[in-house]
Amino acid sequence: MDTSRLDLNLLVTLETLLNERNVTRAAARLNLSQPAVSAQLARLRDVFEDPLLLPAQRGMTPTAKALSLLEPLRQALDQVRGVASSHLNFDPATADLTVTIAASDYLQTSVLQPLVLRLRREAPGVRIAVRHMDPAQHAAQMARGDVDLGLMQPIEAAPSLRMRALFHERYVLIARRGHPALEGKADGKATAKLSAKAFAKLEQVIVSPAGGAFSTPVDQALAGLRLKRQVVLSAASFLFVPDIVSRSDLVALVPERLVKGRAAGLQVLPPPLPIEGFDIAMVWHERNQGHAAQRWLREQVLAVVGPRKDVTTS
Fold first, then answer.
1. How many CA atoms lie within 13 A of 129 on its CB side?
2. Which of 26, 120, 137, 228 could form a disulfide with 20 if both were Cys (CB 3.0 to 4.6 A apart)?
3. Dihedral of alpha carbons 152, 269, 193, 237, sign
4. From CA 207, how far away is CA 110, in angstroms rounded?
5. CA atoms of 231 and 253, how far apart (whole Å)
6. Dihedral sign (CA 306, 308, 309, 314)
7. Worst-scoring range by mean pLDDT, 41-50, 72-81, 246-255?
8. d(Cα 202, Cα 198) in Å, to the nearest integer?
9. Are 205 and 241 in contact (CB under 8 A)?
10. In what order do the strands lie in the sheet with 149-152?
11. pTM for the complete prediction?
């Protein structure tokens, strides 16, 4: 192959075509006309002596050779992008850019909401696009550049991504103030820890992200004590839970940060039995490691969640 016929623009076009698999979408992403991208594809086919992308019912299908090129091409272009941007200074006060962050509904409320408020003060020109975290797709989304930063449990993160631990979350029990079965104080703190037996007798709401389930590992722990709780409501989102609990005699076990600073009308009690918590980390693609704006964004996330003694970087 005569590599002298290749230039950086052609390689960028090839990467975009392999990601989009559609000439029209690739042209829009490259800010080029569709005929210009088609002409570049013709040149690429000539250089690589392969069709690279074949017409399909929807878009285009890459050939085996094209698929073999994608990852090394992406790595090479990421290195070029890193070199080109490493010297740039980032001024949050004057920055004009958009960043995309993926997180679950609970993390959108507990972390991204205060982050956005902080960015409005520190970097008013930075726009945040929030997407729902899809653990099955997050690695591919970051590889394509569709997502810049993700918040998730470390055990769900792809090993190819960079990761930094943020905090360990624990569960608390919430109930409305004045709940007839709970003795509380005006400040919302319980006078005593609720027993597992008393907890099992209360009507409860649980969260089933997939929808429809009426049991969690908590029920297995209760079964070990020969107890069974009364789950009367299965919600698809944690965001639904605090409001319904504050307006009823239902109780719920929720992540503590979900109600931190949002416990008006609620009592927040220790869990009635040992419940395993979970860790939360932020993850990002290698291409964003040295990017000044992305590095600043990660620092803002750390500032929002607060320090953690056992934070590690990979």
1. 9
2. 26
3. negative
4. 17
5. 11
6. negative
7. 72-81
8. 7
9. yes
10. 126-132, 97-103, 149-152, 278-284, 162-169
11. 0.68
Percent of the chain predicted with pLDDT > 70: 90
How confident is the model over 5-21, as a mean pLDDT? Answer: 88
Are the CB atoms for 152 and 283 separated by under 8 Å?
Answer: yes
Termini Cα distance of the chain: 38
Two tokens at 200?
Answer: 């099992």
Phi, psi of 11 (to 5 degrees): -70, -40
Q: What is the pLDDT of residues 47-88, one digit of tens each?
A: 999 999 998 887 899 999 999 998 888 888 887 876 666 556
The string of pLDDT tens digits covering residues 204-236 is 999 987 777 888 889 899 999 999 999 999 998
| Residue 146 vs residues 15, 257, 284: alpha-carbon distances, Å | 14, 27, 11
